[in-house]
User: Which sequence fits this backbone?
């Protein structure tokens, strides 16, 4: 059996486009997930019972079912739902790319929310008391005292979750998205070069993930010193 | 609503199998659980061994364990699934011969079990290592001081406490495993998620199909949680507060 | 009108009663020490005064404003009541100066320069002007607690609450904090202090309150309390802590 590197070389431009999509999706989903995740975490921790229940329900739902299933939900049902909401004649074409963005943001928000919740709750009650004792209200205490400390504490975990997200983007395969893995797969099947292409994909993912995780470890050491 | 939801679809005949759709889905649940259980056994055994080895003093053993963990952690599960199904057999001719000759579902199952088992073993190795290292250093010294060998110290002093400590993260790892089993659908294994999509595509009743799958996963997740909580209570050591309290 | 007025206050955590019918008051300029064994509810009581802990029965008012009154603007009330905590609770991610100026700027609306100036003055008063640019993690416990006192004073409070301010300090640092508190008392600050430091009580307290199991058992002028304590429990408590 011969290992043909030429196939990989020839496909690089196409594969690079796939990687661009992977990276874009990772960044967008991280930012969106962080934003909504923080809101979700605050909702979950709030003393307004209905709000807290809805947030908890949403978080638990997203964490109980596979990402593949969530992708299917959005991919197959979002066009139909939008059609009935807008009263259009035919379901609009959403496509794997946009489906993926919405799905990943909504999915990751639940995971980021749990990380944020743990971070917020890890700040001692004494800090909350000290903030209130000075006359700061809830919003001020959160903004200036609790959230900054929580973010700092949770930064390594948040970054690790981002690395996981980077790997999870490969699942757009199940809705025929063309991310890095999707591109690799298409070349593999077109040229019947499964071994070379999938091995190459594994190596690329490994190098990127591993490097990022080393950076996170270094960051963790730095934070530990500052404490 | 523009789309009609026909909940009777579950009792209608499945076009791809004998019997109604709900039976078809239940068989899918069977595959999901079987796959998860087999992979879990591999993961637990392998993960415990590797995790324990990573806490010994021998550098090369520790580094080997670390390499194992890093290898499986940094490649997406889907890519690993493809590697096990498409690439590994190319390097092991007897395996390839068996896979080509046997029923597709067995080949898929084999690849999926190996993939999920080894992937999860790396994560469990990490939990076990963390659990052992969270014990006070004095425990190891105390074991050695009364004359136990290193192996005995692990067996009688360190591991019993470490495993109790890691029951919560182990629980979430178990739930992850069950969710990850859905990725086997990409190599054609007809587990629950695969079958729910198929049912949707053939009957256009996507909502009922996915709703059923969702409910099943939620029930499985809740059950796994309950079982682990029960185990945690049964093996709890009186008066010991594991980890850091809130 | 007393500065702090506590009337028939009872509090439950679920079905467990932690405060039973507590009644006392602190006049302007008075220094009242609250002592008692652990679990007696003294920390809980003082946290009720600025509504950090809610209470189910009774009334508390600070300078005439009802603390339990739903119409009261709590942040505004708390801005004028200074509190010092057992574990200092400086904000670790902010510098010492920022710890002192944050609430001045955000709650009292002072300008940054004014807030800085007052902060520096107070740091000087507690003997820590040189530490202004440092972070809490770089200071000793005694230093942190003195900064915490300065932080509370920066809000120009009408009264100060102290929740076991020296209990978390190593012995050699207790005096530097007590000295600051003694000075405050001499300058006429209204103070309610939960503490075990009876030397401090003897020096500057006007009254001593003894609590046990959620009740105020004794509430007497300092000399009466130390000279002829009336209750059995107070006698026992004093004998345990005074022979050290």
Assistant:
């Amino acid at each position: 059996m011969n290992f043909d590197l030429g196939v990989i070389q020839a496909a690089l431009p196409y594969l690079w486009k796939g990687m661009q999509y992977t990276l874009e999706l990772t960044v967008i989903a991280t930012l969106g997930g962080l934003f909504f995740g923080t809101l979700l975490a605050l909702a979950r921790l709030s003393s307004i019972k209905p709000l807290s229940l809805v947030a908890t329900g949403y978080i638990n739902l997203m964490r109980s079912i596979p990402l593949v299933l969530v992708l299917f939900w959005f991919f197959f049902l979002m066009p139909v739902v939008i059609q009935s909401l807008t009263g259009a004649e035919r379901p609009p074409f959403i496509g794997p790319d946009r489906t993926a963005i919405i799905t990943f943001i909504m999915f990751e928000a639940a995971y980021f929310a749990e990380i944020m919740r743990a971070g917020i709750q890890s700040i001692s009650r004494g800090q909350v008391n000290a903030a209130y004792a000075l006359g700061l209200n809830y919003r001020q205490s959160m903004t200036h005292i609790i959230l900054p400390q929580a973010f700092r504490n949770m930064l390594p975990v948040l970054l690790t979750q981002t690395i996981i997200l980077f790997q999870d983007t490969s699942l757009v395969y199940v809705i025929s998205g063309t991310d890095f893995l999707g591109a690799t797969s298409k070349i593999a099947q077109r040229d019947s070069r499964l071994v070379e292409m999938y091995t190459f994909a594994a190596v690329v993912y490994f190098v990127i993930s591993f490097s990022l995780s080393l950076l996170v470890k270094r960051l963790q050491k730095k934070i530990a010193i500052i404490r | 609503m523009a789309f009609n939801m026909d909940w009777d679809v579950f009792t209608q005949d499945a076009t791809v199998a004998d019997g109604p759709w709900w039976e078809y889905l239940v068989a899918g649940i069977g595959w999901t659980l079987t796959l998860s259980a087999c992979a879990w056994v591999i993961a637990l055994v392998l993960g415990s061994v590797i995790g324990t080895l990573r806490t010994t003093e021998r550098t090369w053993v520790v580094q080997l364990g670390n390499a194992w963990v890093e290898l499986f952690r940094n490649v997406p599960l889907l890519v690993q699934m493809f590697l096990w199904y498409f690439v590994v057999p190319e390097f092991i001719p007897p395996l390839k011969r068996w896979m080509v000759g046997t029923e597709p579902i067995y080949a898929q199952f084999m690849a999926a079990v190996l993939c999920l088992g080894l992937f999860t073993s790396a994560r469990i190795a990490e939990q076990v290592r963390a659990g052992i290292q969270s014990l006070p250093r004095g425990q190891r010294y105390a074991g050695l001081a009364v004359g136990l060998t290193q192996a005995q110290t692990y067996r009688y002093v360190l591991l019993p406490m470490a495993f109790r400590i890691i029951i919560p993260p182990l629980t979430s790892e178990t739930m992850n495993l069950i969710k990850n089993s859905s990725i086997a659908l990409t190599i054609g294994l007809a587990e629950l998620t695969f079958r729910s999509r198929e049912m949707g595509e053939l009957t256009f009743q996507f909502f009922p199909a996915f709703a059923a799958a969702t409910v099943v996963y939620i029930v499985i997740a809740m059950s796994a949680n309950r079982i682990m909580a029960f185990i945690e209570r049964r093996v709890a050591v009186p008066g010991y507060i594991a980890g850091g309290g809130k | 009108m007393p500065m702090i007025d506590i009337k028939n206050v009872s509090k439950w955590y679920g079905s467990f009663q932690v405060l039973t019918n507590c009644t006392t008051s602190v006049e302007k300029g008075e220094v009242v020490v609250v002592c008692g064994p652990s679990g007696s509810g003294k920390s809980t009581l003082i946290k009720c005064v600025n509504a950090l802990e809610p209470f189910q029965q009774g009334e508390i008012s600070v300078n005439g404003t009802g603390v339990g009154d739903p119409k009261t603007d709590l942040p505004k009330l708390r801005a004028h009541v200074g509190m010092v905590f057992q574990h200092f609770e400086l904000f670790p991610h902010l510098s010492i100066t920022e710890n002192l100026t944050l609430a001045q700027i955000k709650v009292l609306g002072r300008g940054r320069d004014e807030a800085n100036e007052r902060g520096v003055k107070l740091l000087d008063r507690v003997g820590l002007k040189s530490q202004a640019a440092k972070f809490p993690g770089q200071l000793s416990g005694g230093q942190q607690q003195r900064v915490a006192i300065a932080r509370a004073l920066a809000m120009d409070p009408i009264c100060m609450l102290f929740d076991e301010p020296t209990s978390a300090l190593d012995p050699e640092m207790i005096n530097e904090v007590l000295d600051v508190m003694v000075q405050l008392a001499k300058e006429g600050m209204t103070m309610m202090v939960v503490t075990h430091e009876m030397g401090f009580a003897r020096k500057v307290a006007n009254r001593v309150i003894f609590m046990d199991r959620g009740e105020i058992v004794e509430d007497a002028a300092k000399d009466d309390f130390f000279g002829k304590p009336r209750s059995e429990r107070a006698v026992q408590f004093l004998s345990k802590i005074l022979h050290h």
